[in-house]
Amino acid sequence: MKKNMTRFAAVVGLAVVPALALAGCSGGDDGNGGGGSGDDNKLTVWAWDPAFNIYSLEEAEKIYQKDHPDFELEIIETPWEDLQAKLTTIAQAQQTDELPDFFLMQNNAFQKNLLNYPDLFTDYSGSDVDFSQFPESVTAYSTLDGVNYGVPFDNGTAVTALRTDVIEEAGLTLDDFTDITWSEWIENAKTVLDKTGKPLLSGIAGEADIPVMLLQSAGESLFDEEGNPTIADSDALRDVIEVYQQLVDEGILTEVNSWDEYIGTLVNENVAGTINGIWIIGSIQGAADQSGKWGITNLPKLDDVPGATNYSANGGSSWALSSSGNAELAADFLNSTFAGSTEFYDTILPKAGAVANWIPAADSDVYAEPSEFFGGQPVFQQVVEYGKQVPSNNTGAYYYEGRDAVSTAITNVMGGEDIDAALDEAQKSVEFAMG
Amino acid sequence: MTSATSSTRKRGRFSWRRVPGYAFLSLFALFSIFPLFFMVVSATNTTKDVLASRLLPGTHLVENFRSLFGAQDVGAAMLSSALIAVGTTVLALAVCSVAGYGFEVYHSRGKDIVMAIIMLAMMIPFAAVMIPLFRLFADVGMVNSLFAVIIPAISTPLLILLFRQASRSFPHEIIEAARIDGLRELSIFIRIYAPTMKSTFAAAAVITFMTSWNNFLWPRVILLDNAVQTMPMLIANLTAGYVTDYGVLMLAVLLTSLPTIIVFLVLQRAFAQGITGAIK
Amino acid sequence: MATEAIVTGGKRRLRGSPRNPYQGRKRPWLHTQRRWNLTGWTFLIPAAALITLMSFVPMIQALFLSFQTGRGSRLTWADPFWLNFERMMGDEIFKLTVFNTFFYLIIQVPIMLVLAMILANLLNDPKLKFKAFWRTVIFLPCAVSLVSYSLVFRTLFATDGFVNDTFMALGLMDQPVNWLGGGWTARLVIIIGLLWRWTGYNMIFFLAALQNVDYSTLEAARVDGASSLKTFWFVTVPQLRPMIVLTAIMSINGTLQLFDESWSLTNGGPAYQSMSMSHYLYELSFLKNPNVGYGAAISYVILIMVAVLAFIQMKVGDKRD
After folding, report:
1. Which of residues 31-60 of B touch A (CB under 8 A)?
2. What is the DSSP letter of B227?
3. Which is the most buried residue in A285, C25, C95, C306, by most CB within 10 A?
4. pLDDT tens digits, residue range C205-257?
5. Residue A1: its chain B contacts at CB < 8 A?
């Protein structure tokens, strides 16, 4: 028995031990993604998107190193979904030591994480960051009880992007689409559709992006300040859904079923415009042959809704300080770069198209550079201007549930259900999820 | 052996009875391969073409390669995935084959009950155990290590069940004979059972490798570092940005699929020999 | 044969054990049968220990969780303690996902298993040409990672995608179908995806099992004049029974726990109409407001459903012969 046992063990061991040894070496507790770094001059950060966020972090590191030559920034590329899953797992398992020094977070998810897992965060009250240099609507996402938990980064201000050559064919210009109401906008869009056959918008069916954007443009939200859902009683929301329905029924908005299809409609010229956060221009610019044919303007405002504006936002993200890392150093780093350096924003803008929320950045020449792709418009400056006028919205902890409920409501309305009934159902399902 | 006898039959003789079989196979093969064909073609195209469902290969392959390798550390991710998959497969085969053999050959009512309990484990949705598992590994300091990905995957009720069911057709008189010859239990397993059940081992190896390679829910929670991320995580990185280059994405996906295909090609002879009377 | 005599005899006894080697002498405590029994148990220990640690311990913890409520990490005991389960009864979305999952189970699993068996049988024929080619091609879908095939499928089933274009060109319909936009069609896309991906997987199991089919029985059937269909049904299939039970259990388990396809192909859409139970569970725990107590309760319900079905399957199908 012994002889065969040793032989068996030897065979298994020979195969497995090298593999595990290698595994232990390369992974190991040495590659410390978590727990911040004990080092005083080193920071670890979790963020996604190499072309945009990570690139910006690298440039910020260089700028900070001018005054702090020993500084090092370790960037760990983590897609947002993974990041959220990790945050949830870490918080539930109460292992906050595994957190990095700071991390990026979607604005829409900020309240949810703050309210449910306060143990993950450190606030900025001990730092020098001047939050008045950011638009209030954006800092609102990461503020709880008057305390700031996030430094806003990429800009989610919504714009209307239009194919200027197509609307010209219909005898219209970009000005005809600026500072108008939805009923006027729809008239113009119908003209374009009749004369050129191209719809002006596309969107993912059953997703709440567009409706919620329009709702925000009127300064309204899905929840009130106490966090109660205001879906069923919201006249503004009813208006919004009616507008959406009209857009689809008249053929002005093409509904598609997935993100890739949506991008496809833009890049393959099936539609002549879109309404979304400014970050969409990255995807639009992927169609290099359309350069010079696009223009940017603001959103139409809702008719009949008091408080309606031409401005809104969709998405965007902010930097959060983790509870177990070197919050002081991270806050200082962020203050000197993302919240304090025009040079930084000037560098990242041309290369990555990374538009900031930081208001002073817009005064620079770089921001005033006309964009060739957008027919010579200084789009970045425009967007920061728009950003100042965006109304805040209340997200609250149940924001995703609210958005989902609105998505379902829209799907049902497009399928023929009465708007009021659909909104009632949406309200009920959010209340169910909350309780 | 069959191959010897079949070569004495007349080869290449056309028979109408075979046509439905071939037709069915061709249809199913076409159904199976078309999406893959699309994937391969897309890896050579640009984003625009991919989104327009272009079916012809383009000229962007080299560019896509360059973008992919420039943006992500493909080598490291491949290595990670490979280590995890190989480690899991070897250990899983060792542990589960022994267990399945034990359940079947040393059958008893007690073991039946234990088997039923173990099968319950197979029915636990993974999302439910993710957080307690994370806490377990974090408590022993094994977060971010490849071990943490391998260990939960070693003992699967599925594999144990597979080996148990396959052992049902293993004739026990051979075990009797071996015992009479004086062999110990473990060496019966190693010398007689394992070589005979090659097809089962090969099938188990392919399945385990494939499952481990494509696994993404657990690694993305427990691995915190870019240096040890797996290929599926790398692919998630590619879609996480504001702008996705679909040609590069398809290329990455193609590269990710290759190792499993290779493993299959290598092992397929073992479980698909054609009918043999080898056991006799 | 000696083996049969042992098995069909009335008493249950360890196979392979001779009648009584200790005739006339006193049996030592560690006699042969007991030693074999113990060895058998030793074989099981590594596997069983790992499973206990990795699956059962977390699951017991989840049981406690399912009796707690609260948001995030602030959990308290539920009052009454079955509150989460009661809540489940009123959860419309949960009921929809249960319906969806069972729909997939009832439609897709039988089709897939039958297809896999037919394919395996076809591929097992020694006279078939290009075996390696067919095998590889049919297995390839499993080898492909999830992200890719979901992207490909979504592109193919898009409103202006390949499938619609082809069907219209063939004259089968004159309006493009919005596959992913309608409840039933989205479910259909998932079923097609499942068939595409998992038939090859199950085919491997059947192929492996077919290797162990006794060729002499097939020869005997042919000599007796049975057609190939009859041979298949009456001779091959009974010998495949253990493997059929295995694949059936695996498929039931896999489909009831369906996550990947619901998440990647349709994202549960439109409006939860194609979402599976596990996907909903994941959303509840990680995406929406985390309510882990409720999530744990749902996972128990899923577990019980799967266990009941598997138990029935085993009782009905699994015989030791």
Report:
1. 47-48, 51-52
2. G
3. C306
4. 888 888 777 778 878 888 888 777 777 788 888 888 888 888 888 888 888 88
5. 184, 186
B215-257 pLDDT tens trace: 888 888 888 888 888 888 888 888 777 777 888 888 888 888 8
H-state helical runs in A178-311: 182-196, 209-217, 235-249, 259-267, 280-284
The residues pairing with A322 across neighbouring beta strands, listed in sequence order, are: A121
In order of B25, C140, C141, the CA distances from B30 in angstroms are: 8, 11, 11
Residue A273 β-bridge partners: A162
pLDDT value of residue A30: 37
Measured from the Cβ of residue A136, the count of other Cβ atoms closer than 10 Å reads 13
pTM for the full model?
0.81
SS3 C138: helix
| Cβ-Cβ contacts under 8 Å, C123 against chain B | 25, 272
Rg (chain B; Cα; Å): 23
* CA–CA separation, A407 and C121 (whole Å): 47
DSSP C44-64: HHHHHHHHIIIIIHHHHHHHH
CA nearest A244: which of A414, A387, A87, A405? A414
Its domain, for residue B87, covers 72-279
pLDDT at A394 over 50: yes
Nearest to A229 by CA among A12, A424, A44: A424
Nearest to C289 among A119, A256, A401 (CB): A401
Residues in chain C: 321
Q: Is the pLDDT of residue C10 over 70?
A: no
Question: H-helix or E-strand containing A24?
Answer: helix A2-26
CB of A287 within 8 A of CB of A86? no
A203: left (phi over 0), alpha (psi -120 to 50) or beta: beta
CATH code that applies to domain C93-318 = 1.10.3720.10
Domain count, chain B: 1
User: How long is chain B?
Assistant: 280
Q: CATH number, domain at B199? A: 1.10.3720.10
On whether residue B186 sits in a domain, the answer given is yes
For A44-69, what is the mean pLDDT? 89
Percentage of residues in chain C having pLDDT higher than 90: 9
B108 within a domain of the structure (yes/no): yes
B181-206: per-residue pLDDT in tens?
877 777 778 888 888 888 888 888 88
Tokens of A414: 């497009």
Residue type (1 letter), A334: L
Half-sphere exposure (Cβ direction) of C19: Cα atoms closer than 13 Å:
5
Is B206 inside any structural domain?
A: yes
CA A14 to chain CA mean position, Å:
50
Q: Does C39 touch chain A (CB under 8 A)?
A: no
Vertex C138 angle, CA C133 and C143, to 5°? 105
d(CA A393, CA A138): 9
Query: A31 and B244 in contact by Cβ < 8 A?
Result: no
- How far apart CA B81 and CA B225 sit, in angstroms, is 14
Structure tokens at A153: 């980064």
**Separation CA A367–CA A365 (nearest Å):** 5
Is residue B200 one of the residues assigned to a domain?
yes
- Return the sign of the alpha-carbon dihedral for residues C248, C250, C251, C257: positive
Structure tokens at C215: 């060729």
- For the residues of A403-414, what is the DSSP string, one character each? HHHHHHHHHHHH
Do A85 and A98 contact (CB within 8 A), yes or no?
no
Structure tokens at B52: 């327009």
Interface mutation vs chain B, best among A77, A95, A268, most B CBs within 10 Å: A77
What's the alpha-carbon Rg for chain A, to the nearest Å?
24
Classify residue A418 as left (phi > 0), alpha (psi -120 to 50) or beta.
beta
B19 to chain A, minimum CA–CA distance in Å? 41
- Name the residue facing B128 among C57, C239, C299 (closest C-beta): C299
